[in-house]
Write a structure and sequence with these properties.
This protein has six helices and two strands, in the order ααααββαα. The chain is mostly helical.
Length: about 150
């Protein structure tokens, strides 16, 4: 049974681990040389999950951020040719966001960088330990789907 003190230690370990994961992923993303930030990378991954171009509000909701944050991310990605704004076919007041071919290529390279980062992070664990960690994280995430 965990004591309040051991829970505090575990919470600190989780925070330190999260920071380490972000730091390693950021380094691998930067090494891709795509000029994409971790937040932009997340937007690209989220955008790829849609079967048709979403509205900015859809992206903000899925990313759990304010719409203004999505606008800033899209502006940067659009300037780099990774996404484009397209008019909604049924409502000209609505703008949708779609991946460009360059965005799809970047997304593929970013996925490779994330896999490499994951390998680095998980290197100290055996296969069985990785499976156990996956199960534990799944429990903590409450069955939330994981998107690459």
């Amino acid at each position: 049974m965990a004591t309040p003190d051991s829970d505090s230690v575990l919470a600190e370990q989780l925070l330190r681990f999260t920071r380490r994961v972000h730091r390693i992923q950021k380094r691998h993303i930067e090494e891709c040389g795509l000029g994409v930030t971790p937040a932009q990378s997340r937007l690209l991954r989220t955008l790829a999950q849609y079967s048709s171009p979403p509205r900015m509000a859809d992206l903000a909701e899925r990313l759990e951020v304010v719409p203004r944050a999505v606008t800033t991310l899209v502006d940067g990605l659009e300037a780099n040719g990774k996404v484009r704004r397209v008019p909604d076919p049924t409502n000209r007041r609505v703008i949708r966001i779609e991946l460009t071919e360059d965005g799809r290529t970047a997304l593929s390279r970013l996925r490779g960088a994330r896999r490499t980062a994951a390998s680095e992070i998980l290197a100290p664990l055996s296969r069985d330990e990785r499976e156990e960690l996956g199960e534990l994280l799944g429990t903590l995430l409450g069955g939330m789907p994981v998107h690459g």
